Amino acid sequence: MDLEERAEENIEVTGSQGRVSEAIMKTNDLQYLRSGLRVKCEKDVNPSVRRTCLSFAVWLRTYMEFPIRVVVYLKTDYQLKTRDTRELASATFFAPYDKTVEPYIRIATGDYEELVSERGKNDALWAILSSMAHEIIHYQQWLEDKEMDEKEAENGSEELLDSYYRFL
Known about the structure:
By secondary structure, the chain is α/β, with parallel strands linked by helices. 46% of the residues lie in helices and 18% in strands. The protein is built from five helices and eight strands. The strands form three sheets. The protein has a four-stranded mixed beta sheet with strand order 3-4-8-7, with helices on one face. The chain has a two-stranded antiparallel sheet with strand order 1-2. A two-stranded antiparallel ribbon has the order 5-6. A hairpin with a 6-residue loop joins strand 5 (80-81) and strand 6. Helix 1 packs across helix 2, helix 2 (47-63) packs across helix 4 (121-143) and helix 4 (121-143) crosses helix 5 (150-167).
């Protein structure tokens, strides 16, 4: 069974378990109207990428809390420009200074077919999930008012994916 099939099975098993309600939440005496993790896909994102990322998001909702809503945008671009330095990256996290402004994550998926031909389907999907997990760790750093630490994001994303793999 390949990664996509295992991920799809995961969606069916977990369903909407673990979803955080839309009620007003309080964190550090600030009120937030929305919470949770959402995934939005551009129209032409590969269906395998879409299904696998959605399955990962279903699992993430059961594994960790998202007290301030964060949306993951799956983009068809090969690379994305960062907001601050305009560098090219495979994924970005927008960390607003104001905690009442919702953060977001963007993931470039346009190189999926190339990754499949170079690495195979499972490794290509895993590479995209790795980018998503890395940015989720940056979201956690932002929530905790920490500096954006790349080493911590790398290590944390590997741990997150190891836990997800054991779940599958």
